[in-house]
Amino acid sequence: MKLTIAHLYPQEMNIYGDRGNVITLMKRAEWRGVRVELKQVGVGSKFDFTKADIVFGGGGQDRGQLMIGEDLLKREKNIRQAADDGVAMLMICGSYQLFGRGFTTIEGFEIKGINVLAARTVGSEHRMIGNVIVDSPWGRLVGFENHSGETILEAGQKPLGTVVKGYGNNYSGVHEGAVYKNVFGTYLHGPVLPKNPRLADALIQAALERRYGSKAELKPLDDGLEHKAAEVASKRPQ
Amino acid sequence: MPVFLTLLIAKSILRLNRLLGLGGGSALPGLVAETLDSNILAKLASRIPKGSIIVTGTNGKTTATKMAAEVLRQAGLEPITNSGGSNLSRGIISTLVERTGLWGVVRGKIGLFEVDEAAMPGVASAVKPTAIVVLNLFRDQLDRYGELDRTASLIGGAIASTSASVYLNADDPLVASLAKYARKPEKVGYFGVNHSSAKKLKSDHTADSIHCPVCDKQLKYSKEFFAHIGHYTCPTKDFRRPKPRITESGIKLRLPGLYNLYNALGALAVADTAGVKRQPALRALEQVSAAFGRVEKVTIDGKYIYLLLIKNPTGFNQIIQTFLADAKAKKVLIAINDKFADGRDVSWLWDGGIEELTGKKLDVITSGTRAYDMALRLKYAEVKADSESDLDKAVKKFLGKVKEGETAYILPTYTAMLAIRKMISRRAGLEGFWK
Q1: Given CB 3.0 to 4.6 Å as the disulfide criterion, which of A24, A199, B202, B312 pairs with B140?
Q2: Is A93 among the residues known to form the active site?
Q3: Residue of A65, A129, A195 to mutate when probing chain B, most B C-beta within 10 A
Q4: Which B residues in the span 192-231 are in contact with A, Cβ-Cβ below 8 Å?
Q5: B339 in contact with A at a CB cutoff of 8 Å?
Q6: Could you tell me if A150 and A112 are in contact, meaning their C-beta atoms sit under 8 angstroms apart?
Q7: Where does residue A77 rank: exposed (0-12), middle (13-18), buried (19+ CB within 10 A)?
Q8: Is the pTM higher than 0.95?
Q9: CB atoms within 10 A of CB A237
Q10: If phi over 0 gives left and psi between -120 and 50 gives alpha, with beta otherwise, what is residue B360?
Q11: Where are the beta strands (DSSP E) in A9-107?
């Protein structure tokens, strides 16, 4: 078995160790005997996202977001088609914001999103920084958030989970992230996947099922260290 | 409040601190003085006869400042410098409190201060430096500083607020682009490395500023040293590496690594702005040993232990390179704390090129509040590690494993470094914090 992981804008959107998510996906697939091909998709490079199995996009600086904005819009139709078709995707922070309706900066400048997720982000005065805990269908997730954009989900848009500690999508601190089919958007850095292996495996499983049809059973791994690291993180002050 | 009174109170605190052995106490007297008189920094700094020079940047400030201080000292300039690494305004005030007599007379001729990036606007407007030297800008504790571009604009704003001459690292595109903030272009100089045999690590993913600061196009590199440091040009020709006035020829150092060569160039830039000639400056540089906790070698019961501070991915990669260059060293203790001074967010561990350690048959212990995070990072690079969160126990266990005559490495974050240093100084006789 083989999976293709597309890393979206690795040069521009890479600020908070989010590359660790790609490492985690690759290793957890390889440890189960699944070969992984990694494709770096940069500004201007040709790529058909319906051919990918997992797509990953990380967090970036404001300038990074501005640099990729136009290129991402050109890919809207293709990426939405892939999302509708069940391609697994994980979008963190800046990439999460642009997978929604768009981001309006505090100065009123608007960066359009590609409407995969029914979520709109507005720049705010608050900097939401700190350790986060979220209860989700993929277990209790731990991570670290660092954003000033506040994301509001539209009616009918499922969140990733509910916030136990920290802020999540916005200053109200109720919901975190958004999920559509196999597309996950979240503010959790850390990076998110190493300490939340269930979420990592959910992405791999969804990708294998779409590619190979049958119900893919993932061989369990020893996640003792993952759980210990997550437990420590959940006890650190916000 | 009269300066005399502020000084009297701050100096008493300084003495008391020393008497009680509360470490260097380097920030407290300054903090109190600043609370009593918010203009105290400007008042004290204005008394320094030859004015002050500021060194800033994310990596290497303490070492570069130590090097520069040695150069100035040997040139007879009696520098006043915050050598303890306390680099916010309160640390600089503490230094000045110590070096100013109650009647306001300053001991020393020239100020030389390392300044935290985020503290630059406040410190620069108070100190009114004659020169600002910017070493580099790498991603560093984003939970404290926010984005790198913001850090750059803070330093830029500080440059724009003074008439100081400016020395910039030509090989760091983001730093070189700060020239636009200088009031007078003729007062901008550059330092850089023309030739180096150092090769960029395969798993170095820390390049932050590889896009043109003018037009956002990706820069083309003819030489890549590490992170985004190297020789670059924008394909649209609107931005290129400036030609450095200060380069590496003739520099001999006791400290390892290309990053220390850059620190030395920063020190030569300081020397140049202070009017010290190159030859005596080079001679002084040859005698500089490591700054507090940055690269220290201690001998404990016949075991050679290197202590190397890690704080951000670029620094981590440099330290990994230094460690791997020592082929015989196989034992390493990595201590990761997530206290405020370390940065609460440990995501950066995943930006480090830990894969360089894969297959090297190392004996690794991880420790600190985030011992398991570090072990997990190693696990995904296929490197096995033992974890012991308790620093005291981890250090004991580690020293127990190291044999007499063997060289081993301890890589701590800032607060872990302070704690470990305390533990081993009892056994190895390290110099005091405040020296």
Answers
A1: B312
A2: yes
A3: A129
A4: 205, 207-208, 210-211, 216, 218
A5: no
A6: no
A7: exposed
A8: no
A9: 10
A10: alpha
A11: 35-41, 54-57, 88-92, 102-104
Tokens 């620190």 belong to B263
Q: How many residue contacts between A and B have a Cβ separation below 8 Å?
A: 99
Q: List the catalytic residue out of A7, A147, A175, A189.
A: A189
The shortest CB-CB distance from B379 to any of A66, A146, A225 is to A225
Q: What are the structure tokens assigned to B289, written together?
A: 């040993």
Instruction: Report yes or no: A82 and A52 within 8 Å, Cβ to Cβ.
Output: yes
CA distance B9 to chain A (A): 35
| Crossing angle (nearest 10°) for helices B258-273 and B61-74 | 50
Low-confidence ranges of chain A (pLDDT < 70): none
* ipTM above threshold 0.90: yes
CA distance to partner chain B, nearest, from residue A48 (Å): 23
Tokens of A196: 């939340």
Residue A189 bears catalytic tag: yes
Which strands form A2-8's sheet, in the order they lie side by side?
A35-41, A2-8, A54-57, A88-92, A183-186, A178-180
In chain A, which residue's Cα lies nearest the Cα of B340? A237
Which tens digits make up the pLDDT trace of A165-214? 999 999 999 999 999 999 999 999 999 999 999 999 999 999 999 999 87
Q: In the block, which residue shows the tokens 């890549």?
A: B224
